[in-house]
Write a structure and sequence with these properties.
six-stranded mixed sheet; alpha/beta; globular; Rossmann fold; 9 helices; single chain
Length: 250
């Protein structure tokens, strides 16, 4: 069953056709990777799904509800979460404070930020559980400014999961990470996939083929192919248009 249905979506920027009549679906419980060369329209599509951009045509459905014209915050409350290419967390705050702020928003207590954390036992316990889920328990009291890039990415993923999304849009979560940190983030994505469906935009092909149940390939704003990792590996059009000399395809 599809959780997300994108139907004939189109987006223009002046004379530039960024996304054209694109159909895409994400099923319940799957990691669906979206790949393609730079300029293919992947980030534009993610921004259309999340509500940061409005389409010029087509529709977006989440769990049977038309969300095409809903603002991002309404989509969030319907179970749609997102991360960005650039890590987006609260600077100058500890890991604990970041998680508490995110949880207050979900519990609709965001207007009461100055109430002591100690008086919010359930919120604090949930924050501790999230930190542990992402292997950040030893960094719980540290300010995010002193964390490594990979650890900050894990905090961002924890913030996204704090909203208990049914569908999480991950925009290049491995960007700028070294090998060890990338492994930690990949492990985190696998854990997230137990809790929510994932639409993953990523340039790291090794990670894509390790994580994805299905893969969609975008070229020039349109969908070239969708299939299992094995089907995408063996698709001659995909090899020619995007993957090129990628060694694991041999």
């Amino acid at each position: 069953m599809s959780l997300l249905d994108v139907r004939g979506i189109t987006k223009r920027f002046g004379g530039l056709l960024a996304v054209y009549r694109l159909d895409l679906d994400v099923r319940e419980g799957e990691v669906h990777a979206l790949i393609g060369p730079n300029g293919a329209g992947k980030s534009t599509l993610v921004s259309l799904i999340s509500g940061l951009l409005q389409p010029d045509g087509g529709e977006i459905w989440l769990d049977g509800r038309n969300i095409t014209r809903l603002p991002p915050w309404k989509r969030f409350h319907l179970g749609l979460g997102r991360t960005f290419q650039i890590v987006n967390i609260f600077p100058g705050r500890t890991v604990q404070e970041n998680l508490v702020i995110a949880l207050l928003g979900r519990h609709k207590q965001g207007g009461d930020l100055w109430r002591p954390v100690a008086s919010r036992g359930h919120i604090l316990r949930e924050a501790e559980e999230l930190a542990s889920f992402f292997g950040l328990e030893e960094r719980f009291g540290e300010k995010v400014d002193v964390l490594s890039h990979g650890e900050r990415r894990l905090v961002e993923l924890a913030l996204a999961l704090a909203g208990r999304p049914r569908l999480l849009l991950l925009d290049e979560p491995l960007a700028g990470l070294g090998a060890e940190e990338a492994e930690r983030v990949k492990a985190a994505v696998r854990r997230i996939a137990r809790e929510a469906s994932v639409l993953l935009v990523e340039h790291d092909m090794d990670a894509v083929f390790q994580l994805a149940h299905r893969i969609s390939v975008m070229v020039y704003g349109s969908l070239l192919a969708t299939g299992s990792p094995e089907e995408v590996r063996s698709n001659p059009q995909v090899q020619q248009a995007y993957l090129g000399e990628y060694e694991p395809l041999a």
